[in-house]
Amino acid sequence: MQRRTQLYEGKAKVIFEGPEPGTVVAYFKDDSADLAGGKPTVVTGKGVINNAISDLIMTRLSEIGVATHLIKRLNMREQLLHKVEIIPIEVVVRNVVAGSLAKRFGMEEGTPLARSIVEFYYKNDDLGCPMILEEHITAFGWVSHPELDEIMSLALRTNDFLSGLFSGIGIKLINFKIVFGRCWEDEQVRILLADEITPDSCRLWDLETNKKLEKDRFCQERDGIEEAYQEIAARLGVLPDLEHLSSEGLRLVR
User: Fold this and answer.
1) What residues contact 124, with CB distance under 8 A and at least 6 apart?
2) Is 213 exposed, middle or buried (0-12, 13-18, 19+ CB in 10 A)?
3) d(CA 45, CA 242)
């Protein structure tokens, strides 16, 4: 088997050179970043579930006209993607008060917002991904004004789609984080939705009980991580496809 060249390794994925020019292969890891600042946790099988969920969501988004970097899912842990230049901006769309928004303004978690809020953060782990304004983005030359307008439009369209998708399976989309990239086709530059959309990048609560189905649920107690990922995958209908998982399902490695 030919050895692939690793291009990048992040918290949840490893990126390798693709089989053709202009492509890369993303390998979904089982690592789960510890939000409390401790040692990362390994959750056996999480990468498989995240691969399946992101493939489903990205495919559905492309069907409604939101262009993504996904070409196809290769196997249980890998996706073939268009190679893009990642724009160093994390776009966070908020529908309900939670997390840092609640802390910043002293608001009660779970309070519905009158309209969705779009926030921007500088994608730089060394600096703690600080919050930025549109003026920073255009003044620093990260994107042009037309590109920023397109990113805003795509983020809101993605929010509309995800809200409907999750609501249909009894889940409330509290907020989510996405990243965009530039892809060159001849002389044309396209803005593509990149990275992933998984329980790692979304805050999800049960629609009826407000039970947390994401990292907030276990970042302190280390309880419920396996069930949370399995439950979301099962509701989305991708769990039956994950044949290699044992009958015990996901397993937390402490």
Assistant:
1) 88, 130
2) buried
3) 9
Q: Which residues pair with 182 in a beta bridge?
A: 85, 191
**Which residue in this structure is represented by tokens 């397109």?**
150
Q: What is the pTM of this model?
A: 0.90
DSSP 83-109: --EEEEEEEEEEEE--HHHHHHHTPPT
Write down all domains in the chain, each with its CATH number in brackets: 6-83+222-253 (3.30.200.20), 87-206 (3.30.470.20)
User: Average pLDDT of each block of 10 consecutive residues along the chain (254 residues)?
Assistant: 82 95 96 59 88 98 97 97 98 97 96 97 96 97 97 98 98 98 91 96 95 69 74 90 53 46
Q: Is the dihedral of CA 130, 184, 156, 140 positive or negative?
A: positive
Distance of CA 237 to the CA centre of its chain: 18
